Amino acid sequence: MVEFSNVSKTYNKDFEALKNINLQIDKGEFVFVVGASGAGKSTFLKLCMREEVPTTGTVTINGFDLNNIKKRKIPYFRRTLGIVFQDFRLIPDMRVYDNVAFALRVTGTKEKEVRRRVTHALSMVGLLGKTQSLPKELSGGEQQRAAIARALVNGPELIIADEPTGNVDPQMSLEIVELLNAINRSEGTTIIMVTHAHDLVKRFDHRIIALKDGEIIADGYDKEQILPTLEEDILAEEHAGYYAAPREMGAVEQFIFSYGKSDDAADAPDAVSDAEPDADPFDDPADEPAEGGDEQ
User: Fold this and answer.
1) d(CA 150, CA 135)
2) Which of 27, 48, 141, 204 lies at a CB distance of 3.0 to 4.6 Å from 172, suitable for a disulfide?
3) Count of Cβ atoms closer than 10 Å to residue 213 Cβ
């Protein structure tokens, strides 16, 4: 379950990225989160992944109190999540099998169990024939399916998908959402999908949470009423917003490593420890100021 209670997030003491957010997402729900760039979507996702903590209010996800969780427990919390990015974030020098297996290996999972889980995840996304391919040898749709397999392999309670259709064509976009829908139905996995693609949202009868200027302006199932309130803002954007790519691919590895048993950087693999410590794979400048700290 995901619960935000009176949550606000302030940057630089006066920039409110989120304002008094109250919501509950039950286990097994599929929820679309929609809104223009700067609406607060990225801050919402960062709070869900415990990349940020609220200035006021409380966030509870999958039984973890994210306000008061101890640092050493954050990797255990993140094992209950699966993350899917718009730009795939596959590690380029790892084959598909190893990309999917990476999050399991950093937790010390035995190889026999790794093989079982990776095979199951790749089977679900239809990539069993691509296990030895490098990301550059895959189409965009195949890369996103590999990313979904990586998100799925830990058996997460919650999958967070940030604009997962942004880099694929319309037909593949529909297939990606249908795949997430199938995972939701067959595995009972809760899905939170952030998207600008209102045409896709209209095809499914899922709950919609609409954000604008850091506030929830609509929450429900009436897409014919909710979506038109945002379309003017979406059309006014030159580009759809999403998390900026990390400055180094090591930042992605570093985040995946945070699923592991320790948050001590000395325990990380070489490819992880070489990453810039400040490289943030979840950074969206539209949601927060370029400089300055948080007010806690």
Assistant:
1) 13
2) 141
3) 15
Q: What is the DSSP letter of 243?
A: P
Which are the contacts of 67, defined by CB distance < 8 A and separation ≥ 6? 53, 54, 58, 59
pLDDT of residue 172: 87
pTM of the model: 0.81
**Do the Cβ atoms of 217 and 198 come closer than 8 Å?**
no
Tell me: pLDDT of 196 over 90. Answer: no
Q: Which among 168, 105, 163, 113 has a CA at the least distance from the CA of 138? A: 168
Q: Is the pLDDT of residue 19 over 90?
A: yes
Please provide residue 58's backbone torsions phi and psi, each rounded to the nearest 5 degrees: -130, 145
Question: What confidence score (pLDDT) does residue 197 get?
Answer: 85
pLDDT: which is higher, 216 or 295: 216
Q: Other C-beta atoms within 10 Å of 128: how many?
A: 15
In angstroms, how far is the first alpha carbon of the chain from the final one?
25
Instruction: Calculate the alpha carbon distances from 120 to 101, 214, 230 in Å.
Output: 11, 39, 39
